[in-house]
TrEMBL record, chains A, B:
Gene3D superfamilies: MoaB/Mog-like domain. Pfam families: FLAD1_M, MoCF_biosynth. Residues 10-172 form the MoaB/Mog domain. SUPFAM superfamilies: Molybdenum cofactor biosynthesis proteins. SMART domains: MoCF_biosynth. InterPro entries: CinA, FLAD1_M, MoaB/Mog-like_dom_sf, MoaB/Mog_dom. This is Molybdenum cofactor biosynthesis protein.
């Protein structure tokens, strides 16, 4: 099967606890790394509150725009876990108890002597037509419906679900990156870097100042899926930085 | 001056380096804490790439919807720093060199013996009609135009700019929170917690499982701007949790 040139994705992080600052998100970074490894271009992230309409709007806006949508959070057993409800609403489908999800949960509950109750059975409600995403950590499954992949918010469960998903996703052309370190400020390399960016439109060049170090440092990051072109552009950027170091009379940083 | 009932905000994090996973964002958490401290309800966060149209769309969607919009990232001297351009475009105004911003930068450059060049002067381009946000760390200012507050992406600079902004923002009614710790699973408290949430619609109740600890733990977080109501609801939740501990025969956790 041939890969389309670009496979894109968006992430929706669901939860008041992120927006209040009570919980510091780590799922954005994990999803970004996961996508980069698979050659999927993560184009956008939204963090939304535990409000049905906000989740529905984000799911519908993003699933129309990108190859894949991932969501994290809001699939537990309590009243504030409304992601399944919202995704079912976004797709206009029912949200019945799924027998396979119920069996997965009951098997785990039997092992651990956990009481089956209405709150826990909320976690077996899966939108009609969805496939389950296995949860190797705590049994309660995520699910995929259309191009939307619904995962837990707890980071270790979310990462286990991403791993379970990986074989089902189509990767794109892997984007490679090279970093050139400069011991001068961004403003010194900014002009010539812009000129090199114009010369190599298919190599994306970024400039990142490093604050709080002993001396001024700038990291120039080049990204492209064309390795030969990337090497050529990196050599040009390195030569430009070498010249800037010589002009400023500074020692080049270790690469 | 009387405060409106709810002051809302959105944050736009701008930068390919967040979406590629190369840089792990910490500005979302810092902005969330900042808003919570001021009684501002952070309703939504978007992370977008270094593409003008994506930034313009996010700025225009969110500034119409919330009291305040904050942005971080993309105000440095290099070609990939396009936030000022995008915000000027979103507001339909010009982006000239701002004399006050230029003076701030030149004063710093004089101190540090830094060459003035075209790349560095990009940082003095400020949308027409905007006010500057002082940058005590590295001089290059942010700016406020309408309800949109444009800040640096480097975390220490971003936090300095938030501090500079604080006196200019109108805070809302401060939201207080109480946490009740339970040594039983979410599924055990889920049903009665949902019933208590229905009884106290003005106290927002959240349930957060704590994974990876020695034993099952759930934190129940109650939030409200009405302190008396919050105390009353917290006492009810605590009594419900005490009963669950007694039924399960487990030792209550230390609060």
């Amino acid at each position: 099967m041939s890969s389309p040139a670009t496979i894109t994705a968006a992430l929706i992080v669901i939860g008041d606890e992120i927006l209040s600052g009570r919980t510091k998100d780590v799922n954005i970074g994990a999803t970004a790394d996961f996508c980069t490894d698979l050659g999927i271009d993560l184009k956008e992230v939204r963090v939304v509150s535990d409000e049905t309409d906000d989740i529905v709007d984000a799911v519908n806006a993003l699933r129309a725009r990108y190859t894949y949508v991932f969501t994290t959070g809001g699939i537990g057993p309590t009243h504030d876990d409304i992601t399944a409800d919202a995704v079912a609403k976004a797709f206009g489908v029912a949200l019945p108890i799924n027998p396979q999800a119920r069996a997965m949960l009951e098997a785990r509950w039997k092992e651990t002597g956990t009481e089956v109750n209405e709150a826990r059975l909320r976690m077996a409600r899966i939108p009609e037509g969805a496939d389950l995403i296995v949860n190797s950590v705590s049994a309660a499954p995520g699910f995929r419906i259309g191009n939307v992949h619904v995962m837990a918010g707890v980071p270790i469960i979310m990462r286990a679900m991403l791993e379970a998903l990986a074989p089902t996703l189509q990767g794109g052309k892997k984007v490679l990156s090279r970093t050139v370190k400069a011991a001068v400020g961004e403003g010194t390399v900014g002009g010539p870097l812009g000129a090199l960016q114009a010369q190599y439109p298919d190599v994306k060049m970024g400039s990142y100042p490093q604050m709080g170090k002993d001396r001024v440092m700038t990291e120039l990051v080049l990204r492209s899926s064309d390795e030969a072109l990337l090497e050529e552009a990196t050599a040009k950027v390195q030569a430009m930085v070498d010249a800037a170091h010589a002009r400023a009379g500074v020692t080049p940083p270790e690469n």
